[in-house]
Amino acid sequence: xxxxxxxxxxxxxxxxxxxxxxxxxxxxxxxxxxxxxxxxxxxxxxxxxxxxxxxxxxxxxxxxxxxxxxxxxxxxxxxxxxxxxxxxxxxxxxxxxxxxxxxxxxxxxxxxxxxxxxxxxxxxxxxxxxxxxxxxxxxxxxxxxxxxxxxxxxxxxxxxxxxxxxxxxxxxxxxxxxxxxxxxxxxxxxxxxxxxxxxxxxxxxxxxxxxxxxxxxxxxxxxxxxxxxxxxxxxxxxxxxxxxxxxxxxxxxxxxxxxxxxxxxxxxxxxxxxxxxxxxxxxxxxxxxxxxxxxxxxxxxxxxxxxxxxxxxxxxxxxxxxxxxxxxxxxxxxxxxxxxxxxxxxxxxxxxxxxxxxxxxxxxxxxxxxxxxxxxxxxxxxxxxxx
Amino acid sequence: xxxxxxxxxxxxxxxxxxxxxxxxxxxxxxxxxxxxxxxxxxxxxxxxxxxxxxxxxxxxxxxxxxxxxxxxxxxxxxxxxxxxxxxxxxxxxxxxxxxxxxxxxxxxxxxxxxxxxxxxxxxxxxxxxxxxxxxxxxxxxxxxxxxxxxxxxxxxxxxxxxxxxxxxxxxxxxxxxxxxxxxxxxxxxxxxxxxxxxxxxxxxxxxxxxxxxxxxxxxxxxxxxxxxxxxxxxxxxxxxxxxxxxxxxxxxxxxxxxxx
Lengths: 387, 260
What we know:
By secondary structure, chain A is of the alpha+beta class.
């Protein structure tokens, strides 16, 4: 189908001032999109994905280049564009009004879809970033656009919410186009039918998934991100070990535990960004899992069972519930943690042991298939503290 | 083409009305709307009382000194508050620029309308009080009063737009302009009028568009005031220049406002 393009970018350049001079983020990006396309733009952290989708949506002005937009296009839906002292409802009303949509309908849909409960009528400063992302996506889906721009919003929620997003996109794909930006290739594989890699200020577009996957893997394996972290294991209380550190890269965490009882691994961060779906997309696990008594979110990619849990106002963390450990039987789980938004991340493991046992953390980088030299295996033996 | 323009105007109308509602929500949540109305009234009350204590004589014989003051303070507040609010309109609403159809001009118009609305409300409220107290409401030219106040508000819009655009490049302007506005407020004839100052100072005031605008308000309000010094051409010329500068500056810096 050779439809009229609804979006044309020609030679888009964009730089930002830094203390060391201007930093060129986009070095001439060209793109033509036609009806029926769902483009997924993938790139490393800081590659300029959000800048690019901001320029596409008009939220950010480019330094040079030409943009042609046709049809109704959404704003870059991420979680911005809200006023923190207004309630979710008041913000939704504002958005519905400026897009000339039916306020009642949009609000009803957004309230239902975002599942914010009583928070919908509370000021948005009480929201976590995951909740903002959920609301933003919900509002955008409530309004009819020819093209939806989605900026990482899908990762902001939990697994179940992601499923609902996917279904919503599925339902709209006949009539609408999508531009999805994510640092998670699996998200893009699943939602899109055209793929692009943003790397070194250039956008490379692929029609074939395999070509995109190869290019993306090549970029990721050459990525050099310094590990500036200091990992430490804290043991506090009778049955708790925690590893904290900061990183901007993806880490492998291998967990081995022995002893009767149950091991709970969790991750989150201390700066208010929720753990994202991407946090565990690479997870692989060779253990069965015991389902906790909380709401379950089952990850289809890995079989991990994660429970999203709100750690107070500042942090959201996901938990993985491995199965019960029978006495003396070793078990291990591996998962990877990637954090785009924050530098500070905590990984933790909580042992609920029925007797003496040990837990081992191995931290490494999956893309390089080797561990940084500076990062030794960390083993916390809890045998002395667990009773 | 007509359809496109009409559509654009419709969208802008939608955006501005949504912005006004939103601004009212943030500024008038709970009981803060009481403060919004009370603040200019208290401002007037303090100055009027001070004026009464310091000098009891009216600048113009036959005019109630308090009324003379109020016809200076309120119109100047319309200018000053509009200018200062519009100046920071883009700063405080930056997050909304993610929506393509929302522009800094919409923020400015929304704020100016809201600010003028509040102060007009206060003015009419005070007139209502005067009427309830048993005084007759007599004007030389009521329409003139309203137009003059509107002119001061639009001057505020123009100045605020231009200063807001300039402060994108020179951020400290955003902090300095309110002081300049306060200076203008104090020297443009809130406590006096062109008619009762002498010599050099009168010559300067004759060329002040703000003093002339106030003169317009007062000569339209008080039937007994003479119009011999009023220069409406100066007022209109300045208004046109300020609005044009403001609008052009906003248009020229629109991309810059979205560049971060």
